[in-house]
Structures are given as structure tokens and as C-alpha cells.
User: Fold this.
Amino acid sequence: MASSFTTETELAGADTSRGILQGLLDASRESILVVDLSMRITAANAAAHEAFARNPDILHEKRLAEVIRDPAVHDGFQQTLNEARPTDIRIELTGFEKRTYDVHIAPIELEGQGHAIAVFYDMTQIERLERVRQEFLSNISHELRTPLTSILVYVETMEDGAIDDRENNRRFLGVIRRNAERMNSLIADISELSLIETGNVSIDVREASLANIVDDIFAALSSKAAARGVRLRNEVDSLSRVGADPVRLEQMLTNLIDNAIKFNRENGTVTVSFSPSAGKTLISVADTGEGIVPENLQRIFERFYRIDRGRTRNVGGTGLGLAIVKHLARLHGGDVLVASTLGRGTTFSIELPL
Assistant:
């Protein structure tokens, strides 16, 4: 009887220990697997089931090789189990998307048996952000170097005697000024985008006359449009009202209309329209340009992304305008959409909640 009581007590104690272990594992946001000497999974937390299990499978008692088909993981566990010392590896797993993990495997004893416990630190987002950072630094260096090189060349030319050349010195100064303004615009846009992304920009949403805002933008950009023979059409009803921060709405529309003029055909048309619908309003800016190929549509809102770098450099711009538009639209609780047909033109639409 005593022997039976002891056995039941031991079993109850083991169940309690397993329950505590499972609770501790589930408290971690990182994926954790515990593997025994036969390379079977004896414990896994909720994060591991979400990352590695094929629903509605459970990981308990499955062979490790069935769950993660990566030789490095198998070898890492085997090394830890054989040598009773920690192992660190980095792996890439491909499922619905490629994910990168730093894996720390350590020896552990459970119920008198040797096991190995592995913590999978998901580095995917960190690596993605690092790539974005490196790409940003590369792009910003390139965008600043181009006008800076031009400024230095013309300054040296003037220092070498061109300052006394009455026929060309003002033209050289004009080139220096334009490139300095380009650098100033780029820095201003970077600062603006940084403020928006860090949440340090607030908006003052109120009722605004959309037709008047569009008229003001057309007046400011009329000379640029006239230089390319582009017609500006305001199809917004004079009574139309939108709920938005007027200053930020003007900033968004100025970016879109300016782009529509720059990338339009000679003697093309830019049309601004307004269409309220259930629960939202849509402000559209349409051009009659060459259109955008589908593979570029997914990336045009990225910072510094250029479809045609040569053409963009000729017509000007910092490459940050669309990124700013998208962030400001989302700050309003809306979004910005794009649709394009090759040979017929492109339409950008700011979607705002009513």
C-alpha cells in the first residue's frame, strides 16, 4: 500500500513539475523546444507551435527532424546532448515566408534524464530593419553626393577664373543654387519623414474646402505645368468638404499633383476628382502619362525608390514624396492607393475616413 502511495505521489509530483515547466515555457515570446536523447520533442511552448507546427498538429513526441528539416538544428541538438554543453547556431527556415533564427541550445536534466532545450530568437525583423537602414544610408549618400559634386565642380570653376566671366558666371551660380536647393529639399523631406515615422507629428482634423485647396495648389504649380503644356483640371465640386488637416492635405496633394505634372506626357492632363462613398472619401489625382509597370507598383511608396533614376533626376524630386504622402494618409486613419495602365496613365487616390 505504501509503495502504491509513493508511486502515485511521484507521478503527481512529475505532473506538477511538467505543468510548471510548460507554464514557464509558455511565458516566453520566443519559440522553445525541449528534446530528449532519442531526438523527440518532449515539450514545446505556444510560440513554437505557432512557428513550427502544421495545424492542428501538436509537437509533443514528434521527432525533431519531422518538425524542422534543417540539418544544422539536428546537429546542434545532437552536439549538446552528447557533450552536455551549449551550442549556438543561425538558421533560415522557409515556410510561408523566410525567417531567420539565432538558436541557443543548452543541456538540461528533466526527471533524471538528459535533455536539450533550445530557444529560437527570431531575427527576421531585425535583419529586415538592418537592410532598410543600409539601403537608406546608401541612397541618402548617393542623393546628397550628386548635387554636392556639382556644387564643388562649379565652385572650383569659378575659383579658377570663371567668376570674372560675365557671360557664364551667373549661369554657374544658378547651377550652384539649384543643387543647393535640391540638397535643402532632401534634408527637409528626411526630417519631415523622420518626424512622421516617430509619431512626433500631430494633425488637426477639421472640415476643409477641397476645391479651394486644389485651386491653390494649381496656382502654385501653374508655371511648371505650363512649361510642359500640361493642363490642370479641378473636377471637385465647390461645395465638397473633407475632414482632414488642411495643411497636411495640401502637402499630400501637392506631392501627388507635382509628380503627375513631372511624369506626364507633353500636353497631357492632370485631373483631381472627389468621390465620397460609404464610410470614406476618395480624392484622386490622375495623369495621362506612360503608366507604371505592375512590379513597380508595390514599391513606389518606399523611400528613394525610383522607377527610372535617370528620368527622375532630370525632372527633380527627392524620392521621398510618396512615402510622406502614405504616412500622412495613415496618420489620418486612411491610406493612399495607386492604379495604373501602361500607355494610359496613373491614378493616385487618398482614402480618408468620413
In short: Residues 1-5, 309-313 have pLDDT under 50 and may be disordered. The first strand starts at residue 31 and ends at 36. The chain has three domains: 2-122, 123-201, 204-354.
